[in-house]
Fold:
Amino acid sequence: MNCIFDLDGTLLDTLDDLAASTNYALRAFGLPERSRDEVRRFVGNGVRRLMQQAVPDGESDPRFEEVLATFRKHYLHHSMDTTQPYPGIMPMLARLREEGHATAVVSNKFDAATKSLCQHYFGTLIDVAIGESERIRRKPAPDTVLEAMRLLGAKKEQTIYIGDSDVDIATAKACAIPCVSVLWGFRDRDFLLAHGATVFISQPEEMVKMVSEVETIIRQ
Structure:
């Protein structure tokens, strides 16, 4: 099986570092800071969308591009200050690798940060990492997932997508592959249900069993 993961809220708890960089950029331009819960609601659609919501007037503020650039620069240097894999993630990825499953990460985080975080925290446990860039449309467009599948040599009928948000549900649907929604991330069960989630896991170790079950069904 091929397992394609979202990053923020799925594999890594990045919220505090995202909030810190958001507020650093806002402070630099005399703008009001945002709470951790506000940033939690803002993440998932890329850093531009995050800052569109964090800046009171969004892109209407003439300083918006400077605020965004300040966020990007700060986050590149501080994306690992407090970020850590969620409990159980590392053993889960190791088990998937031991059982011969391929893994990838697709994120709406900008590409340089996505690749850097995956290399730092996961090393060889992740085969492919793709983030937001000018050359490829971000989620929920299917492009990043389809590119990851191409690089893995993966077929749709042997691929599942794992994420924590409505964006992830929509992305999997756009790719016509199953979506597993995790319950330890940035969105709760009721929110996910309202956006079409049908399959849930509450602990990372459940992922290994689920992949094995799906693989068995496919072989039949």
In short: The longest helix spans residues 64-78. Strands lie at 2-5, 12-13, 84-85, 102-110, 128-132, 159-163, 179-182, 200-201. The two ends are 14 Å apart (CA to CA). The CA atoms of residues 121 and 204 lie 16 Å apart.
